[in-house]
Amino acid sequence: MRYRIFLAGFLAAMNLAASEIDLDALKKDYRRPTDIPQNPDNPLTPESIELGRKLFFEPRISASGLMSCASCHNPSLNWEDGLPTGVGHGHQKLSRSTPTILNAAWNQANFWDGRAETLEEQALGPIAAAGEMNMPLDKMLEVLHAIPGYEELFAEAYPGEGITEETVAKAIANFERTVVSNEAPFDQWIKGDEEAISETAKRGFALFNTKARCSLCHSGWNFSDSSFHDIGLKTDDKGRGGFLGFESMNHFFKTPTLRNVAERAPYMHNGSEATLHDTMELYNKGGRVKRDTLSGDIRPLNLDTDEIEAIIEFLKTLSSDDSEMHMPRLPTLIAAEN
Amino acid sequence: MRYRIFLAGFLAAMNLAASEIDLDALKKDYRRPTDIPQNPDNPLTPESIELGRKLFFEPRISASGLMSCASCHNPSLNWEDGLPTGVGHGHQKLSRSTPTILNAAWNQANFWDGRAETLEEQALGPIAAAGEMNMPLDKMLEVLHAIPGYEELFAEAYPGEGITEETVAKAIANFERTVVSNEAPFDQWIKGDEEAISETAKRGFALFNTKARCSLCHSGWNFSDSSFHDIGLKTDDKGRGGFLGFESMNHFFKTPTLRNVAERAPYMHNGSEATLHDTMELYNKGGRVKRDTLSGDIRPLNLDTDEIEAIIEFLKTLSSDDSEMHMPRLPTLIAAEN
After folding, report:
1. Which residue of the set B132, B176, B273, B307 is catalytic?
2. Checking DSSP bridges between strand A228-229 and strand A253-254, what pairing results, if any?
3. Chain B partners of A276 at a C-beta cutoff of 8 Å?
4. Do residues B180 and B287 make contact, with C-beta atoms less than 8 angstroms apart?
5. What number of other Cβ atoms are within 10 A of residue A127's Cβ?
6. Which residues, numbered 77 to 116 in chain B, qualify as contacts with chain A under a Cβ-Cβ cut-off of 8 Å?
7. A130 touches chain B (CB under 8 A)
8. pLDDT tens digits, residue range B152-195?
9. pTM across the whole model
10. Scanning every residue of chain B, which has its alpha carbon at the shortest distance from the alpha carbon of A277?
11. Integer Cα distance of B210 and B18 in angstroms
12. Which domains, and CATH codes, for chain B?
């Protein structure tokens, strides 16, 4: 099914590239959804979200005692870390940049190489990874069992299931589903407010969908097809191909959302591009050339300076004034013994 | 002046220890203040507090890029880290526990050894310390200058002063002054609500001020005399004496606040006591013996089990349902260049 969706988007984009653009028709593809997608096996409940919020901010489930999910997926920095690549246990430098949690509920795959299909599958990975939080999962469960407050929180969120790897993952996943970017000027425009964004930004949006071909991958309201592409960055990281063991998908990485993108520098899976201008230049020079299975396009985009500026002005309309995250008060280690 | 205050508290406590306790008279010494103490050279303004809040949560002023003041002074854990001793750059273990920021506005000295008199003097220490955030201050200023959003924030908070070590310290200090524990059941009792705490807790409060002699050091509404004492822990850490170079003050450490103390395990400057029970046992056995300049008391306290339980029940009434901290959205590194 994912393939069908992808193909339809591709054909639509190609048509638009070839013909006079119909903004009103296009805008229909960018309407904000009204509901958050749920996992039928893990329905969104206030109790599971609240437990997940606590676990997301819980540093005691890391080997250092100092790192939580929120250390790298920092709510103050659009749920990323603002660094070229992540920093893990012992402050070691990791090889890929920290992906945002923003709108993760809409992900059809997680991690840059898509190795986890659901957020539930994703959630425990960075906790256990030696280079990240470095916490063996049996030890994680020991820690949570030793903090008396958690027993009740788990019982409320997942009655009868206890404190297990599965319930930890489910709770974190459900909290992450609630991390949704607020309405941006772009969304107000989509809803009909013509004053919400500038005429230049509208021109940028049209270019984004036609000549610049951005929407081939950055499609829909969240600006991601949740699929994988090689955009021609020369690195040793095999990405999706390394995970699948398919040479044909070497150097394929997941399309990140562009929500709040102007606030999320640096860019790319390896943080190699410092600014939106740098990133646009990369694509404009034909960065997508190598193994671009989408378009087979080996030409540079030939965008002129004004066109690049227009696209960047459009991208800035995707920044929303998101609510400040409230930090939970965490249960204390030995309250019951005190 | 500090000496005079200390002496008065000492004499008052001695009188109470010797005579039948008059709870109503005693309660007068524990009324919550109505105003936050300010530094006349750095008046509390909404702009300075907001700038300080951002800087307090700013990981980019650490060498790792991942640590902020809030990493160790974690709002989710009563502005401490829940660990026996702090964890710093590269996740190295530090030798002293992380002191809370809670009610720091009332501190007359900062750090366990009191080496900084004001919060302004304190604020830059952990940023620059190689073992903590490991960020040379000239580099810190470079980073802040490179994040365009900060220029305006500093201009609003400290017009004409620019981004300097001094303004960074002043802003962080003013934010910290706003971190005040909310009213606890104990405060409601002090205000006159006799139902707010149990009769056992009231008995514990009386013992705290008499037989157990806790109030000799843990005095006043914030339960600290902001002074330094040797309570007989056998460690190599010279504390206040090491800082001052006075052998007579070796092993003296600052009296920590007891606000939210039941939620702030483990205890002591080296995190050596896991629970309030352990801590009470330490004192009960005469832990305060060595070089206790306050009372010269070399006897154990001889509290029985019921008395210890009563004191712990009282200590629990100092826990307040503090507001959740809102995490700021931080200015982005290269917004101006995007």
Report:
1. B132
2. antiparallel
3. 338
4. no
5. 26
6. 77, 81-83, 87, 89-91
7. no
8. 999 999 999 999 999 999 999 999 999 999 999 999 999 999 99
9. 0.90
10. B338
11. 8
12. 2-30+185-316 (1.10.760.10), 56-180 (1.10.760.10)
